[in-house]
Specification:
- This protein is of the alpha+beta class.
- It contains four helices and four strands, in the order ααααββββ.
- The protein has one domain (3-141).
- The chain has helices spanning 3-31, 38-45, 58-69, 79-93, and strands spanning 99-104, 116-122, 125-128, 136-141.
- A hairpin with a 2-residue loop joins β2 and β3.
- The N and C termini lie far apart (38 Å).
């Protein structure tokens, strides 16, 4: 394949990524209802086995996802979940092996409302959902990976 043809393929892949991200970011709030069973929510985060975005970097994907969800019309109080699900999905579609973490703010355990959080790590670095509040990790997806506390680095 010539350099020009390779550049066209890369440009087409980035355009497809941008379009799919735009659509999924807008439609995901309609599918992530509050009463959605946890396993169905994880299904939304998991792309098909194909990897159409191989070649995009993890940082490029997480930055694009962060931009796509930064001004939410819906899910204002669950932005980290929306960002986490999208970032995880697109990292997987690019061939990466990220982790989707779920945790709670220990300061909210005695409050009237529990404060939960979602974040994505790749090779131990937080790419989405970074927070300055130390969270108590509860679950990591895929299972079998020890949970990590959200770090303050990244684009979250």
């Amino acid at each position: 394949m010539t350099e020009t043809a390779r550049a066209r393929v890369t440009q087409a892949m980035r355009l497809r990524f941008a379009l799919e991200l735009f659509l999924r970011a807008r439609l995901l709030p309609l599918r992530l209802r509050r009463d959605l069973p946890f396993d169905e929510m994880l299904d939304l985060a998991t792309p098909p086995a194909k990897m159409p975005y191989r070649g995009l970097s993890g940082e490029e994907i997480s930055a694009a996802v962060h931009r796509a969800v930064r001004h939410p019309l819906m899910m204002r109080d669950r932005r980290c979940l929306r960002e986490g699900v999208l970032c995880f999905r697109f990292l997987r579609a690019a061939g990466f092996d990220p982790r989707l973490h779920f945790g709670v703010d220990p300061g909210s355990l005695n409050a009237s409302r529990l404060s939960a959080h979602c974040w994505v790590t790749l090779d131990g670095e937080t790419l989405a959902g970074a927070t300055a509040i130390p969270m108590v990790p509860l679950h990591v997806y895929p299972e079998g990976t020890p949970p990590q506390t959200a770090r303050t680095t990244g684009t979250g």
